Amino acid sequence: MSLATRTRKALYAGAxxxxxxxxxxxxxxxxASAEPRDGTCNAGEFCLYYGEGQSGAVADFANxxxxxxxxxxxxxxxxxxxxxxxxxxxxxxxxxxxxxxxTAYEFYNSNFGGTHDVIPAGTQANLNxxxxxxxxxxxxxxxxxxxxxxVTQAQIKNRSPHWCWDSKTNCHHDYxxxxxxxxxxxxxxxxxxxxxxxxxxxxxxxxxxxxxxDRFGRLWYFAHMHHSPAPVVSVGQHVEKGTRIGTVGTSAHxxxxxxxxxxxxxxxxxxxxxCSGSGCASYGFVNNQPLLRTAFLARxxx
Length: 302
Ligand SMILES: [Zn+2]
Known about the structure:
Layout: H1 3-26, E1 46-49, E2 58-61, E3 69-70, E4 73-74, E5 95-98, E6 104-109, E7 113-119, E8 124-126, E9 137-140, H2 153-157, E10 178-181, E11 187-189, E12 194-200, E13 208-214, E14 218-225, E15 238-239, E16 244-247, E17 260-267, H3 289-297
Antiparallel strand pairs: 1-2, 1-5, 3-4, 5-8, 6-7, 6-9, 10-17, 11-16, 12-13, 12-15, 13-14, 14-17
Zinc ion (ZN) binds next to loops.
């Protein structure tokens, strides 16, 4: 776990405890119908339970949630007289029932970051140890990535230096981002289905850049790409997973380092913030190394 992750979790835990009293006051206003967070796990909903085996109070959701707060308060479990009623959902869920028709991803960090558990449609289960009582956001739908380079595993593993593909934590120098070392000219493809938000063609500095926003509000930023040939997508264009974006640039485009793709992500923004190095640390970039590793391991070995 990175220092940044620990800090983030600790801050949320403090806020959660402070808000608990306020949430209990409002809990009785829940409508008694098949609506999200009415304390009943209805068909079509994704439900988090305070206890194991779908026991205790429940928090039922109809949509993805990038954190478990609403209107400045923590979202709490509902269920009069049941264990956990009124307790904040964040970091207190032990089991789930996925009654949606889609796969659900429960994440350790807010903003769909860090380690996660995958819950298939229709499944009742206790959460895996990595997110058991350590849950901060969820995606309903396919959160998985297509690895953003058209390469085999061997082509990445054999680079020196190489992307920290086997690290369990964030491994960019200054903040949550991935530097994936690859040969100049390697095709960069979109890891998600989404819309191209920005494109800049540059022969120096950070090189050519593109951003793509997906339906979960995740804004993906690709940097150090080549200027000639330039990125092939246009602003406003819809891309699918695997749609070609551009190519990995030369060392000159990567600020003097060997050629690599820089990939970072934030949630809920339309433009990538202008920052570099340690100056980016306070902007809420999300650790997506676990999703990237899974995508990498889906590539052919050689
Ligand atoms: Zn980088």
